[in-house]
Design a protein that fits this description.
Layout: H1 14-20, H2 29-32, H3 39-48, E1 52-58, E2 64-69, H4 72-75, H5 78-92, E3 99-103, H6 108-118, E4 121-128, E5 131-134, E6 145-153, H7 157-168, E7 172-181, E8 193-198, H8 210-213, E9 218-219, E10 225-226
Parallel strand pairs: 3-4, 3-6, 6-7, 7-8
Antiparallel strand pairs: 1-2, 4-5, 9-10
């Protein structure tokens, strides 16, 4: 398995890292048999790529958080993406998936790398009329065993919606995986789930968000400043 590569340090200060770089949960190597990658290596990869962000963020779930893991900054490096894909593949190979399905946009790159490591197809769903759907000629069939893969899981909503898209096409969902599980508890997913890292960060509803109360502008990562 490829070793996680080092990348140029982004300038993120150690002080800001210590402010909220507290992982709850543990590295899942023992449970998922993820060989060759340590928890410290993974955190160091995020630090050095500038992927550990601090501020006031609106997550895909609609919740607000003072921290965000921008996996795209890690996955922009092909060697890093390959190593993470191989690590997830090592923990899910026993599920015997023959298709990897990911939600666009964040899950596309890691889904492709997991598919490559498993030697199977990698396809994705994207929103059409507000619903995650198979498009671009992608199809699933009754004999497809689907592994749902995304980059970061918070509430599990995108994963569950992606699973539903697979089931609606007649396929069987055999498992789910992500690089990071940043939720405060195990995701409510009714299939085996593997994450390379459990890494909980505080989340708040917009109504109770202390950052909103301070008047700090909220940012949707990768997008513009928003007002709620």
């Amino acid at each position: 398995m490829a070793r996680l590569p080092s990348v140029a340090r982004s300038g993120l200060s150690r002080a800001s890292e210590r402010g909220w770089l507290v992982a709850r949960g543990s590295w899942l190597a023992g449970r998922a048999n993820l060989k060759g990658v340590t928890r410290d290596e993974l955190l160091d990869l995020f630090r050095r790529s500038g992927a550990l962000l601090e501020g006031h963020f609106r997550l895909t779930s609609g919740l607000h958080s003072p921290g965000y893991l921008q996996c795209a900054l890690v996955l922009q490096h092909p060697a890093s993406a390959e190593a993470l894909g191989q690590a997830i593949a090592a923990g899910t190979r026993a599920l015997r998936a023959n298709v990897v399905l990911s939600p666009a946009l964040g899950g596309v790159v890691i889904g492709h790398e997991v598919g490559r490591a498993l030697g199977v197809r990698a396809v994705f769903v994207e929103r059409q009329d507000g619903v995650l759907s198979l498009r671009r000629g992608f199809t699933l069939a009754a004999n497809d065993r689907v592994l749902v893969v995304e980059d970061v899981l918070t509430t599990g909503g995108s994963t569950r919606e992606t699973m539903q898209a697979a089931k609606a096409a007649g396929a069987q969902v055999v498992g789910a995986a992500s690089i990071v599980n940043r939720g405060e508890s195990s995701p409510q997913i009714d299939v085996p789930f593997v994450a390379l890292l459990d890494f909980a960060l505080p989340t708040y509803s917009p109504e109770t968000c202390p950052l909103c109360a301070q008047g700090l502008p909220v940012v949707k990562p990768g997008s513009r400043v928003v007002t709620a």
